[in-house]
């Protein structure tokens, strides 16, 4: 990758050159007229970040990284990337129409739209968590890169921002810098611009306040962040730069600084500028200091990118060990504990929000210690009770090259749905989410009951769903997920279950269908679909249907409902013939498996709320999921 930005140094381009760049950038930002309030207030900061030499940001995706969390106001970032050649053969006029259908540049940043765009932003509040994950990964892998996160002050009213602020300070992420655009306005409400420094300092951050339109002051602040800790203290901690700015800087006096500068402004409030000349002047300066930029913009040279490699499935299977078939019940927490040891040669990051004992990672954490700035080699991260932060942090770590596995009780995934959708699934980042305590039966009651969490996760596009019925199947499905290089959710049984499948046999078993047959009949009259730890009760029910009702019966275990749903109809019909009576048995919402079967299927599941307590047998009786209740239900339908 061509990297012509010299990065941090004792010298900088002349201030007049940087002012020329900022003037051209602001002219384009206002001409584009997309959220001009929060875009024009960031012009000087973006100029300093990309063109002053105070950072290793250079528009190539190599070196430092920038997460533009206030994605609705990304126009100045787009200009900086465009000027450095990230959008080749695109004119500034074409760039100004970004966000239209078919335009290569999205309205809000989308991962991969250009080199250097690592996070899909726009769902406010998630960028700092993502940046913390990337900064953690860089420290873990020995990279000297810094991560800069641009936040709006309105965005800082999101609770996840403060989850991330606490996490970053606790971990001592000295390579993380937040830039807060303190323009004093949310969408329509005023914000206390003078209080931000005290708030960030109170959360353990080193805090610097500057006039966000004073280029020299912003550059000095960026140079100061290179140390990463306070002189005399020696304490590693992240840095927050509070940029005191004017919303709509450069607009007509009647609207400059207004709280209502969202979307676009009326033409009469835009300044009369020679936009073409100002942009040409800016590019002349940029090309003088960044010789490769012009060649990239015109397409005569390109930014070289490398694709991410994913672990080989066969190699992963060779590294893991299975339990003997028919071994005694194995607890769910054994999965993470054993895989963490077996896959220790990989750049894994094992995570658990708070209740790390439930994940099985406690012994490993006791051995290696939880990840901290001064313990960078550890592959275990004890997260706080901050599930939303943990999900976006995992995404950032994945973006920077780690393989995160986040373990949590299934009920807590309710809290992470938007973070999983926006930070992980939409950009397709390879994070494995492991759900424990799935189904019914937790003694802690409705607060941790999974209820419909699986159905909600199923609704997230791009998230592969797997469900395991024993420890060996769980390992095989974890390998499948990790080797796919895609985001996935793995559902584990609530209780320990005996080993049902041989791991070596599972390694050779194709998983593209997302299903395999547990009880075969070449011409079934009844097909029962099941998943997870319901497999044994489904088999017992099928046996009674066959022997007592005289119906030829097939049982299919759905190990990936998302893969099964994508099968061509002829293949699905071969597994579940349309002529057969079909039923689904699941300790999740009945629609999860029922929606995969032909119309008129007998869908049996858990569709109520808060079924919890003990003993477990009583709960399954209440839910109608005992073998007797299931047989009676299906028999009534067949008669």
Automatic annotation (TrEMBL):
Gene3D superfamilies: 3.40.50.920, 3.40.50.970. One of its GO terms (molecular function) is magnesium ion binding. InterPro entries: PDH/Transketolase, THDP-binding, Transketo_C/PFOR_II, Transketolase-like_Pyr-bd, Transketolase_N. Residues 329-499 form the Transketolase-like pyrimidine-binding domain. Pfam families: Transket_pyr, Transketolase_N. SMART domains: Transket_pyr. Its cofactor is Mg(2+); thiamine diphosphate. Belongs to the transketolase family. This is Transketolase-like pyrimidine-binding domain-containing protein. The lineage of its organism: Bacteria, Bacillati, Actinomycetota, Actinomycetes, Streptosporangiales.
